[in-house]
UniProtKB/TrEMBL annotation:
Keywords: Signal. InterPro entries: FG-GAP (IPR013517), Integrin_alpha_N (IPR028994). It comes from candidate division WOR-3 bacterium. This is FlgD Ig-like domain-containing protein. Gene3D superfamilies: 2.60.40.4070, Integrin alpha, N-terminal. Pfam families: FG-GAP_3. It comes from the Bacteria.
């Protein structure tokens, strides 16, 4: 027996200072926001694209010389000149949209450009208000960005200026933007700013463009507002725009720096762990790209592309990512849209949510444009006054533009004496339409992430339990994926809490975590150790879990014996093995993760596990053969039989293609029957598939020959391929022909005769010598038309002779066996010859058996496994379909009993099948699942059919009969109760019993009691008739009862008369009732009934009369709780003494002693006295007056 206690540890992150120590992606920050709960802390998005919170993209433009900043409001019908907000400002410049004051209404922040100040237009439910704004001093700033760079929970405003040159950083706070930092710098900083954690130190860095010198600059930010500045290793003639993304997918951000008005070249700087100077930059000639750039996967090839917004009335230009360094070049680019622009900015997004990316283009003219995808030929024009910039906020994740962001928490330590053993996780999140905060957990035994840590585990719902595979670890960490479908609807997280149940760490250690490789249909042995550091010998139960389907594992000792329980000696090491068998046909990239788990049988909380990762390895190779040649005439198709051989270790759908050296020939590939054109073949390891290449010279082809290259390529790895070379020559009508080539079927024992023509196209008679050879050891000969054996034939000039080729198929031939014979004729006049090819194939006969018929029984919910044998009794290899013909309970998937994998559909006809050689068999199994609600009367007949594909009329059935056995799960007896009844009264208590099972049964009843002696009798539900022994087994029962139905009965009670005496008596009776099933008496439940007997309201004294010096006792009984007074008077009404006043009295009997003295402490004189007892309860109020006397 083992006893353990679980201790609960509570971990909550809800405040800004709780979240701030985690790792956060660039699109998020930890704010001081208070939304659904009272603590000021929230993980939310920096950028806002919907300024009035209606779910649509809103677009911005800024008139170069005023009078407005224009906000074009999105709607279900797109954009129009009338659906807008105008904010008064007389200069253009950059615009950023963010919720600065955390009231859920986004603000619009304008950089000012030629003005000496920036402006915050404060948000409202309908959008920014023209009259509610705050100005911030800055030096003619064109660019702007907002982010919480000092991690205080408030967004800061970054304004790089040019008069004076420098950078203004206004720090946000609850009270606004009065505090700022000015960083002087001697160059102009223009167009747009980007912020991202470039060096992955947990602090977001600032990236700027130095337009006049053609360079860029990074300010690497750090704790306590420290920073360092670094000039980027690039120098163009002039620069202007900036984009940030991981274009080469190496895990580090890259920088796109676009050309300004003095340069037509832009640059891409490649990020790495060493910064931006270890990989040479890519230089592309984009044209004057003063409008900057944006990054998106425009052609949907899973590679990020770049669009450049160009001036001088040019079209926007997309550079497509090639996937290999230098990734971008001028030839792999495309100008788009039917219009030309003087673009000063823009960004991309799916503005109408149709699945295609659209473009917003700020145009230094009378109109700016929404350009609609997917072809970017349609557009909507919106009126502006020389639009000079707007918003440069790019959508999606900074690295890949996918719609998600990520937060990874700090690591929570439970302490050295505690490990996870249960608990729940809950969170509070705002998840607008199409968005979600996806919660993941992992745990480990080290403060650093190492091999002791589990993989991330997804938690579906708030309030869910911590998964069991995270147990037994000291450390816990969570991750939030902030996913969304629309950038206008993004989620935020306000609180996450963990109620962690802990237990002491296990003294059991199973190790190591390890990994290895295994070939298909092979196995690998891992050497594992178990150590127990306790003080006594312990039995440990070992088992495996999480093994992938199709893989098979065994735990053995070092001698190969199967084990599941081992004895561990303190501080000793037990060596054992895990043997893992790979699937028969895995993919080359398949991987299995198996956990070896163990726990002490004396205390299952003392447990440990080891993680074993096994990866598939093996050879992927193939061949196609033979290289061959043939001759035909123009317009006549010639077939070339080829073989595709899978020489590797994996199943492979081998891709087929071809090329012709001459355009005067056409080709195609078919299966071996020539009936279906194909471009791939499915193969098993070491399998050979026959195909046919058909080549046709066009009638007017000028080429006398053609080389066809047939390529077979692995579907797993494109670079693995082989080729066969097929040369086709043209020829003219020969002088000698032996024809036709023929194909025929025959049965074993058949004698087949083929009639052939021998054609002499010469101008004179010829003697044609005849011979043959063939590949089977079958009897064959050449005869004349009368059956005479011949070896030559005389054919006149320009005439035809006839011969017979006769061949006999042996009796014992297998179906599908083929003989190929070549009958050759050689001219006696000329050195020429010709041959006819005769192919004879043995017909396939089919016979199929599946056995045996079986009968089993099982419980509801149980899965019964039936093993069967499928036998091919035909004369050739057969693909035998196996399927469930009839059953209500059987699974439709049938499994290979050796691999435990579902049978394949090898011929793609919709049925599972097995491929068997003649007289071969294969063992399979079928699972029959008994329904949870099945009764013992239910049964099922499953008919499993095996059917030949060689001959569908050849089939056999196996009958599997499954009967449900009686099963009982639980019984309850209700209710436990407590009642109070007066003495000398009767009472009826109603009870019921209910059981769960799949069959009717008797409910037996027994009872016992202790305490007060009551008259007790078990009766029916009405209390009229005593229960009897219906099944005559010596016990009272409720008769035959149905499962899940309440069966009511009662207990009749008769209380005894009240004992008016001082002697103590029992006033409580405990009845213990037991109910159980007749067919399963170990399944029982009990009910406890407590009876409290209520005494009457009564008082007397004993002895009476009494000696005053010895005193007397008052016996008092009360029927309920209350308060009482007891006073003694003389016969004249004079009060002698008050024995108690307002004394609390519990229900029951009480003894009050009077010592015979009055209130002055003197003994009373002999005589008659009157005592008055007054009682006040909740229901009863009564006064009792009685006499007593004192003896002389």
């Amino acid at each position: 027996m083992w006893i353990y206690f679980l201790i609960s540890i509570f971990w909550i992150e809800t405040k800004q200072e709780d979240f701030i120590d985690g790792k956060i992606s660039d699109g998020l920050y930890v704010s001081k926001g208070i939304y659904q709960e009272q603590d000021s802390g929230c993980i939310e998005f920096v950028k806002r694209f919907d300024i009035n919170n209606d779910g649509y993209f809103d677009l911005t433009s800024a008139d170069e010389a005023g009078p407005y900043i224009r906000i074009w409001l999105g709607s279900s019908s797109g954009y129009s000149p009338t659906n807008r907000i105008y904010l008064p400002r007389d200069r253009g410049g950059g615009v950023f949209i963010a919720d600065l004051n955390l009231d859920t209404y986004p603000e619009l922040i304008h950089s000012g450009h030629e003005l000496s100040y920036a402006t915050i237009f404060w948000g409202s439910p309908s959008g920014p208000s023209p009259g509610n704004y705050t100005t911030l001093y800055a030096g003619k700033c064109e660019a702007i960005y907002c982010d919480d760079i000092n991690k205080d929970g408030w967004l800061d405003i970054i304004l790089p200026g040019r008069d004076p040159t420098g950078i203004w950083i206004y720090y946000g706070s609850r009270n606004g933007y009065s505090n700022y930092l000015y960083i002087p710098f001697g160059e102009w900083i223009e167009h747009n700013v980007e912020i991202a954690d470039l060096n992955k130190d947990g602090w977001k860095d600032l990236i700027f463009i130095l337009s006049e010198s053609g360079r860029g600059m990074i300010i690497y930010w750090g704790p306590n507002n420290t920073y360092r500045m670094e000039i980027l290793p690039i120098s163009l003639t002039s620069t202007h725009g900036l984009s940030v993304a991981d274009l080469d997918k190496n895990g580090w951000l890259d920088l796109v720096i676009s050309a300004y008005r003095y340069s037509i070249q832009s640059a891409i700087l490649w990020g790495s762990s060493n910064g931006f100077d270890s990989i040479p930059p890519t230089i592309i000639t984009t044209g004057y790209s003063s409008g900057g750039s944006a990054v998106w996967d425009f052609n949907k090839d899973n590679l990020l592309d770049i669009i450049f917004f160009r001036i001088s009335y040019q079209k926007p230009k997309i550079y497509y990512n090639t996937g290999t360094y230098p990734y971008f070049n001028d030839t792999n680019s495309q100008e788009i849209t039917p219009l030309t622009f003087w673009a000063t900015g823009g960004f991309v997004g799916d503005f109408n949510f149709d699945g295609d990316i659209d473009i917003w283009l700020n145009n230094r003219a009378d109109y700016s444009y929404v350009i609609w995808g997917p072809n970017w030929t349609n557009y909507t024009s919106l009126p502006v006054s020389s639009d000079l910039h707007g918003s440069f906020m790019e959508i999606g994740n900074t690295y890949n533009r996918v719609f998600y962001e990520e937060y990874i928490s700090s690591i929570f330590y439970l302490g050295p004496d505690s490990v996870i053993n249960g608990g729940t996780v809950s969170w509070i999140a705002d998840e607008p339409q199409g968005s979600k905060c996806e919660v993941y957990l992992r745990s480990g035994n080290s403060s650093q992430i190492d091999t002791s840590w589990t993989d991330w585990v997804y938690i579906q719902n708030s309030g869910d339990s911590i998964p069991q595979n995270l147990f037994d670890k000291h450390y816990l960490q969570y991750k939030i994926i902030f996913s969304y479908l629309k950038p206008t609807y993004v989620p935020k997280l306000e609180e996450i809490s963990f109620n962690i149940l802990t237990s002491p760490p296990s003294l059991l250690n199973i190790f190591p975590d390890t990994s290895s490789y295994v070939h298909p249909k092979d196995s690998v042995i891992y050497k594992v150790k178990a150590v127990y550091t306790g003080e006594t010998n312990e039995l440990v139960y070992l088992f495996t879990s999480n093994t992938h389907p199709g893989w098979f594992v065994k735990l053995t000792d070092t001698l190969g014996n199967l084990i599941d329980t081992i004895l561990l000696i303190p501080n000793d090491t037990f060596d054992f093995n895990l043997k893992i068998y790979s699937p028969e046909y895995p993919s080359p990239f398949e991987c299995d993760t198996t956990y070896i788990k163990g726990y002490l049988i004396s205390n299952p909380l003392k447990r440990d596990s080891a993680r074993i990762i096994t990866k598939i390895t093996g050879n992927i190779s193939l061949k196609i053969e033979p290289d061959t040649e043939g001759v035909t005439v123009p317009g006549v198709t010639i077939p070339y039989p080829l073989r595709v051989i899978n020489t590797g270790e994996f199943k492979d759908s081998i891709l087929l293609s071809y090329t012709n050296s001459s355009s005067g020939y056409i080709s195609y590939i078919t299966d071996s029957t020539g009936s279906q054109i194909i471009n791939f073949v499915k193969t098993f390891p070491k399998d050979t598939v026959k195909i046919i290449l058909w080549v046709t010279p066009l009638p007017a082809t000028p080429d006398s020959q053609n080389l066809t290259k047939v390529i077979a390529r692995s579907s797993w790895i494109n670079s693995i391929y082989d080729s066969a070379l097929v040369m086709t020559y043209l020829y003219h009508m020969p002088y000698l022909l032996v024809e036709p080539d023929t194909f025929s079927y025959g049965n074993p024992g058949d004698n087949l005769k083929y009639r052939l023509r021998v054609i002499n196209n010469q101008e004179s008679i010829d003697t044609i010598n005849l011979s043959f050879h063939h590949n089977q050891n079958w009897n064959a000969r050449i005869t004349d038309t009368l059956g005479n054996l011949i070896n030559k034939i005389y054919v006149p000039a320009k005439d035809t002779g006839f011969i017979i080729f006769e061949i006999s198929i042996p009796e014992n031939s297998s179906g599908g066996v083929r003989d190929t014979a070549f009958i050759k004729g050689v001219s006696n006049n000329l050195s020429i010859s010709d041959s006819a090819r005769i192919i004879t194939e043995v017909k396939v006969s089919a016979a199929v058996y599946i056995e045996p018929d079986q009968q089993k029984e099982g419980a509801p919910g149980e899965k019964i496994r039936y093993y069967l044998k499928v036998i091919n009794s035909g004369n050739s290899q057969d693909i035998i379909n196996v399927y469930v013909l009839q059953s209500n309970w059987a699974e439709r998937i049938i499994y290979d009993s050796l691999t435990n994998m579902p049978l394949n559909d090898n011929n793609n006809d919709g049925y599972q099948d097995v491929i068997l050689a003649p007289l071969a068999f294969q063992k399979i199994y079928v699972n029959v699942g008994i329904p949870q609600n099945a009764s013992s009367e239910d049964n099922d007949l499953a008919i499993i059919r095996a059917s030949s594909t060689n001959n569908p009329s050849a089939w056999d059935n196996a009958n599997l009969f499954t009967q449900v056995k009686k099963v009982f799960y639980s019984i309850i007896l209700e209710p436990d109760t407590e009642i109070s009844i007066p003495y000398n009264s009767s009472f009826l208590i109603n009870l019921y019993s209910l059981f769960q099972g799949n069959s009717n049964d008797y409910i037996e009843l027994e009872y016992s009691f202790s305490g007060a002696n009551l008259n007790i009798e078990l009766r029916d539900s009405q209390g009229l008739n005593p229960l009897i022994d219906n099944n005559q087994n010596g016990n009272i029962d409720l008769g035959v009862c149905e499962p899940s139905n309440k069966n009511y009965f009662s207990i009749y009670l008769r209380a005894p008369e009240f004992n008016y005496s001082i002697s103590d008596t029992e006033d409580i009776c405990i009845i213990r009732l037991k109910g159980y099933l007749y067919s399963y008496n170990t399944l029982y439940d009990s009910a406890k009934i407590k009876i409290n007997l209520i005494p009457p309201l009564y008082i007397f004294n004993y002895e009476s009369p009494f000696d005053s010096k010895r005193g007397t006792n008052f016996f008092i009984s009360v029927p309920e709780d209350g308060k009482g007074n007891l006073e003694v008077y003389s016969r004249l009404g004079e009060k002698i003494i008050t024995l108690f006043k307002n004394k609390p009295l519990k229900r029951g009997k009480h003894i009050i002693y009077w010592n015979g003295k009055n209130e002055k402490g003197n003994y009373v004189a002999p005589g008659v006295y009157i005592y008055v007892f007054e009682f006040k309860g909740e229901k009863i109020k009564k006064t009792i007056t009685k006499k007593t006397s004192v003896k002389r």
